[in-house]
Amino acid sequence: MIRTPQRRLLWVLTSSALLSACAVGPDYKRPDVNAPEQFRSDAAAKSTTTETTVTSTDAWWQGFNDPVLNDLVEAGLQNNRDLQSTIARVRKARGQLITTRGKFFPQVEYYGAGERGKFMGLDQTVVTSTPGSLTTIGTMALPATWQLDVFGGLRRQYEAANANQAAAIAARQAIALSVAGEVVNIYVTLRSLDQQLAVAQQTLENYKTTMRIFDLRFRYGTANMVQVSQIQSQVDAAEASIPPLVQAIGEQENNLSFVLGRNPGPIPRGKPIDQLVLPTPPAGLPSDLLARRPDVRLAEQQLIASNAQIGAVKAQFFPNISLTATLGTSATALGSLFGGGTSIWDAGMVVMGPLFKGGEIYGQFISAKAEQQATMSQYLKSVEGAFRDTDNALIATTQTRKLVTARQKQVSTLKTYASLSSMQFNYGYADYLTVLNAEDSLFKAQLDLARSQSDRALSQVSLYMALGGGWEAADLKTMTANKAIADGDDKSNPANQQGFWPFN
């Protein structure tokens, strides 16, 4: 037959198990999102005969078909400092999750003490034979405490910690995709500037050749000073266009080196801007962005964590119930602890709860609810921003493709115009001002074509980024290259060289 104290203890444990089936605080429910049925410019994502098709899980930057660009992206995913920082923060979030999970288990400690003095036999683990005499007491014990998660406060803390870890992973994935996109953007911009510089240098050489011819004509009286001055103005304008381009190229090289985690320096080149193949982003419904974009998933995990924190705070209004126990030995001679000592043990239950806190817990509860409202607004903003970014990128992709086609036609027309005007001038049917206007227009159109080709490639990258495509491949390459940081085994980190027991 079960004794009364044991029956009461069994009743407490059974009641605790039944109560632990639910947890205080709101359960998470994804907010309703007013997603558009389709984007306004879905046709922009369709492939053409000059494009390759890739899926959302592919390394889409490889679709540009430039091995140099592929190497630069992989270097960025391996060495970018912001990315390495987010990898370490995932490990930090994992440690916090393990810490929170440990609270579900009994907490067992060890205790040892040796005392010598006069004891009256009160509140001692060993009653002295002669109270008030000089006595030595030795004690060894294993105290244990087990907090019962009756109202679900610990489970809400664990839910928040789990969401924080998921948010850290999503942040790492978002940064990996961002690094890949930034490397491609800078590289495309760099190749466009290279093309503009090549056009400016070639045009300058052409103008200088014309200038030498007209210098000879002027000496022999077949050209006038006005014509020579006009040509000299062309030479001066072409020369003035070169220094800003050289400066911009150097700055872009340094920017790319910074993203790659390197010191400033030159960047290798691959294919010219007009030979880059444009990859086709994956098609998808607007609602797919909720599962595809890492930054949207990051915002949702932050919302889950703040929602769970409401329950964690609310649980503080209720009693905190813990089971306690101690097992050990005590003796009046230290040498007897392991032999003739007296066994000691106790078991009990502790119930603690707030009686008067002056509004401390209530203030935390209000703050937690306000934080949840703020993170929910940020989540909705991230979703709406994803829809906006995608629609803008689709529009830009369509229009920049049309712009490049128009610029190519313009350059072709101006080449014909410049050639015919030069022939007319040579045969005396036009003055040189006509030739000057034609050549200046051609020079500007060629620069505009290089810029528009860059804009078309950048809009394609923006569309891929907006759709969240390729983050799996970027994250996989990141984790493969930075496995030591992810596992906490980075030998270059002084914190991992101390060898402190029990963990590095």
Question: How would you describe this protein?
Answer:
The protein has 504 residues and is an alpha+beta fold. The chain folds into 2 domains: 23-104 and 150-318 and 358-486, Outer membrane efflux proteins (OEP); 106-148 and 319-352, Outer membrane efflux proteins (OEP) (Single Sheet), CATH 2.20.200.10. The chain is 59% helix and 11% strand. It has helices at residues 4-19, 67-79, 81-102, 153-219, 225-259, 289-292, 294-314, 360-426, 432-467, 471-481, 483-487; strands spanning 51-53, 107-108, 111-118, 134-148, 278-280, 320-331, 342-352. The strands form 2 sheets. Strands 2, 3, 4, 6 and 7 form a 5-stranded antiparallel beta sheet that branches. A two-stranded parallel ribbon has the order 1-5. Helix 7 packs antiparallel against helix 8.
